[in-house]
Design goal:
Layout lengths: L2 E5 L6 H12 L3 E3 H6 L6 H8 L1 H18 L3 E4 L8 H10 L1 E6 L2 H9 L12 H19 L2 E4 L6 H14 L4
Parallel strand pairs: 1-3, 1-4, 2-3, 4-5
Helix pairs in contact: 1-8, 3-4, 4-5
Length: 174
């Protein structure tokens, strides 16, 4: 039984690496956003905007909890804000291993902004608001993670997946 939760800051490579690692290890893969979309009748962004953070975190918890109960083994990528969901973090800690794919703060904001300004950032003060979010989430992931993998600057995705697998094996998680 292998239950791995890939966590990290938005656009840190969680979904890409979770998918590649799951393929190489022949483990089922899912993305928490896809699970949540099955629970709501709109986009995640619209749901969050209309119902707020607390309602979103409740749906996130319900979706991941259901998935965890229905599957013996998997690799699941979480949204960057999963760190803010105390119940979800507890569920992940109790049922599997939390893998924190850590990237340097200085590398992350440009990557995030390529995809547009997310709702959790202050558009008038991007760098400062990102710094606050990064520090808070990094602190939580660092404290809760069973394994922290320093992703460094992005390398080749396949090479990175092999490095992630090696770290998982070294720690006896696969």
């Amino acid at each position: 039984m292998v239950k791995l939760y890939f966590t990290g800051i938005k656009h840190s490579g969680k979904t890409t690496q979770a998918r590649l690692v799951s393929e190489r290890l022949s483990l089922p893969f899912s993305d928490a956003d896809d699970l949540i979309l099955k629970e709501i009748n709109t986009s995640i962004r619209e749901f969050y905007k209309e119902y707020g953070k607390e309602a979103f975190m409740e749906k996130e918890y319900e979706a991941v909890s259901r998935y965890e109960k229905e599957n013996d083994s998997f690799i699941l990528s979480l949204g960057g804000g999963a760190s803010d969901n105390t119940a979800l973090m507890r569920l992940m800690k109790e049922s599997g291993k939390i893998i924190y794919l850590k990237r340097n703060e200085s590398e992350m904001l440009p990557v995030i902004l390529k995809h547009g300004i997310p709702a959790f950032l202050d558009k008038d003060n991007l760098e400062s608001s990102f710094h606050e979010v990064y520090v808070k989430r990094d602190s939580i992931y660092t404290k809760k993670a069973d394994l922290i993998i320093d992703m460094g600057p992005y390398r080749d995705k396949a090479e990175t997946a092999e490095m992630v697998i090696e770290k998982l094996k070294e720690n006896g998680y696969v």
